Amino acid sequence: MRFDTKIAIIVREDLATWQKLNVTAFLAGAIAASTEDIIGEPYKDADDNTYLPMIRQPILIYAATPEALTRTHAQALTRKIPTALYIKDMFKTAHDTANRATVQAHPADSLPLVGLALYGPRNLVDKTLKGLSLHS
Question: What residue ranges define each of the domains in the chain, with the CATH number in brackets?
Fold first, then answer.
C-alpha cells in the first residue's frame, strides 16, 4: 500500500547505538501522539490475546551528520512540516518538563539536534530529506 503521507525519522549518525534507539523511540511516540488516524487497530493472536495497536504506516529511518540535521530542520520549519525533535541536552534530563526547558533554552538555528521526526505529504517530506541516506 502506498500512502500519501510519509513518516521519517532522522538520527545523528555518530550516536551510540542505545542513543539512536532511544531517540527513534521518543520521536516515533511524538508522531503517534500528535497525528490523528495514524494508529491502527489492536492486534489479536489465535489464542485471543490482545496487543496494543501500532502506527499504521511504515516509518523510514535516516542517518545524518550534525550539519545535515540542521539543514533538514531549517527546511522542515520553512516548509511547515510537522516536526518532532530530540536534542543532545535531553540525554541529561530525567523528565518531560526538563526536556522542554532544554529545547526552549536554544534558538532554532543553534539547537544541538540529534534527531528529528517529520510527518507530512510524501512529496514535501521527500524534498526535505533530499541527500540523506537510509540508516544502515
Answer: 5-134 (3.40.1490.10)
